[in-house]
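Page 42, continued from yesterday. The earlier attempt failed because a stray header line got pasted into the input along with the sequence. Redoing it now with the clean sequence only.
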Amino acid sequence: MQTPVAFLIYRRPELTRRVFAEIARARPPRLLVVADGPRADSERAACDAARAVIAAVDWPCHVDTHFADANLGCRRCVSGGLDWVFSRVEEAIILEDDCLPHPTFFPFCEDLLERYRHDPRVGHIGGTDVNEGPPRGTASYYFSRYTSIWGWATWRRSWQHYDVTLEDWPAMRAAQRHHEFFTTPEAADFAAGELDAIHAGTLDTWDWQWQVCCLRQNALCVVPNGNLVSNLGFHADATHTRDADHPLAGLPVRPMAFPLRHPAAIAADTEADQRRGAQGAFVRRANRLQGLAAAVRNKHRYGKLLRALPLLGPVWARWRSRGRS
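This time it went through. Structure tokens are written below.
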């Protein structure tokens, strides 16, 4: 393995050990560790224990650390940490402390980082496939307009366009540009609510900003045709993914076969993106009651159903797209 790995940790030493064991198995030549600080003295021991895991590096590896003294929060810690990572390396594989990869995740990312290194049509290589249906064709991966940050990789050339503040979001919203980016009006409406909250400072996250960054660059995202990373962090003490019974919690993984089979064209899989959009509203729910409320509010599902009706579907689609052509 030749590619650096960035490892984002906080206060979960047991999960950190499990993910670190897979990193150690891959033996990257460089490991860049980003750690947030404790929110209170009661968290300090857990933060220190998570950081101590890195001392177990026992292979030839250059280790860099970026440890916060105080708690920065999800948005500032991850965005600032990745700024630091890409100030030092041209490309990296990125894992958080709750994202457990299959061993083939690493060569999958490494192969595709090399293949698309100078191709601006591709901005993100994901390791998570949330597709609930059969495999998407016969290639080893497919393309999507949507990012997934549960195990991923990218280049400095892509990250340099990232803006954690979403400074120009009000102008984008006023011009209805988000309707150009997302696959349906309903998906665009849901995204707008999240982006409004981020811009207002009421949602502490960094990942939607990365999604907007890729969409604005017209950069597609690689999705493995079979899941390579399992998110083990769905727990009551998580920042966003709190429902342990969530359908995306602990998704099973399967090995990737090599050599990789590449898609015939670099184009988004529209059907897969439609399905992905319908799942988006459920990720942040904290319990089943909130999940039910999210389902009732999820206009994407209503729109998908109405579009499927033989006579009403075309009428609905035209009405929802009025004034946006």
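Notes: The beta strands are 5-9, 30-35, 62-67, 91-96, 99-101, 122-126, 141-144, 152-155, 220-224, 229-231.
Reminder to self: strip header lines before submitting.
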